[in-house]
Amino acid sequence: MRFSFVTSDDYGAHGREHTHGADLSSASRADLRWYYFLGTLRISHYETEIGPPWRWVPLFDALYSMRQIILFAEGADALGRIDFTENDEFIDFKVDGSSVRVSPSYLDIEVSCTVNELAAACQEFIRAELQRVTLGHPSLTKNPQVSELAREIGLHPKGAR
User: Fold this and answer.
1) Most-buried pick from 73, 128, 136, 158 (CB within 10 A)?
2) Tens place of pLDDT for every residue, the chain, 161 residues?
C-alpha cells in the first residue's frame, strides 16, 4: 500500500495558506482539515490505483484520517473509514485477522494488505507530508495541532511547541 499527495494546479491555489500574511502557527485543527493545502490524494496497491478522482482533498484531512486508520487497524476504537467531506464518497477499511480489506465507494474494486503494511504506509505518508509541508511553511512547526499530530506518530519537529 502506498499513499502520496500532489498539490493540485487547479485547486491548490485556493488553499488558505496562500492568503497574504496567513499565520499558520495559529490555524485551528478544523481550518487545517478543511481549508488548507488542497490537492490529490493518491492511494495505490501494487499497480492498482484506488485514490479518489478529484483534486481538492485537503492534506490535513488526509493526515488526520490516516492517523485514525492506523489506530483502527491496530484495534483501537477509531473510525475505519476515510470520508470525503465535499461529497458522500469514502474509503472503507475492514480488518480481518492480520489483513485489511480496502474498498473505495467510487470504484468497484477491493484490495487487501496486512495490518502492518497499512500502518507503515500510513505512518510514512504522515511523516513525509508533514516534513514536506513544514519545510515549505515553517510557521506550521509552531502550530500546536500540527505538533500534536507529529508526536502521535513519533515525530518531534524542530521549533514545535
Assistant:
1) 73
2) 999 999 866 766 666 677 756 778 988 888 888 888 889 999 999 999 999 998 889 999 999 899 999 999 888 888 899 998 778 999 999 999 999 999 999 999 999 999 999 999 999 999 999 999 999 889 999 999 888 888 877 655 444 44
| Grid cell at residue 48 | 492498482
Residues 13 and 90: their CA atoms lie apart, in Å, by 25
| Cβ(95)–Cβ(80) below 8 Å | yes
**Inter-residue contact 73 to 95 (CB < 8 Å):** yes
Rounded-to-integer distance, Cα 57 and Cα 40, Å: 6
